[in-house]
Amino acid sequence: MINSTIDNRTMINSTIDRVTETTAQSLFKTFTAVGILGECTQILYDLRWMIILAIILILSDLWFGLSASRLQKIEIRKSRAGRRTLNKIVDYICYVLLGAVLGKAIGEPYGMNPIVVSITAMVICYCFEIDSIYGHICEIHGIKKRYSIWRILFKLLTLKFKDVGEAFKDMSEQKNQFKNTKDNEDVL
């Protein structure tokens, strides 16, 4: 009888230990997920105006793209235009989160604010949209597009940082050399 009581107590204690351990692990996983989700939500909240600007740029690109297509008498498929627009909006949110995660993973250990990395990713995306809008506006008004946002940024970057300009020139020369060489097997 004493042995069965000891066995029952041992069994009850091991069951309680397993339940407690499982509950603790579950709570840890839940709090971790909530913490990560909370940080992502906070970053999205901090960058809300940049996200609104991105949506405005995307809708402007849609508007001017439709106008340019009408001017050229190109058939407009609303489902494709809507799908691409929604896809861009989702992409921009993904870029913000990717920038934030990169900022948390790489920037924060080096003292960088993760928001700065997200803003940098968004500014790069804005350049794509502004370049597209600029192309559509030039098309609508019959202007041959002469300038690219990327060229302007490249010029500004090379004026500010001479070493970066020299590095880009070297890369350009190497690319041209590679294109002009007929036997490129030994290069790599």
Topology overview:
Blueprint: H1 2-46, H2 48-71, H3 78-107, H4 114-140, H5 149-160, H6 162-180
Helix pairs in contact: 2-3, 2-4, 3-4, 5-6
List keywords for this structure.
188 residues; mainly alpha; 0% strand; extended
Describe what is shown at a glance.
This protein is an all-alpha fold and 188 residues long.
Task: Walk me through what this model shows.
- This protein is mainly α.
- About 85% of the residues lie in helices and about 0% in strands.
- It has six helices and no strands.
- The model has no long low-confidence stretch (mean pLDDT about 75).
Tell me the series of helices and strands, N- to C-terminal.
Answer: HHHHHH
Number of helices: 6
Integer-rounded radius of gyration: 28 Å
Strand content: under 5%
What low-confidence regions span 5 or more consecutive residues with pLDDT below 50?
none
Helix content: over 70%
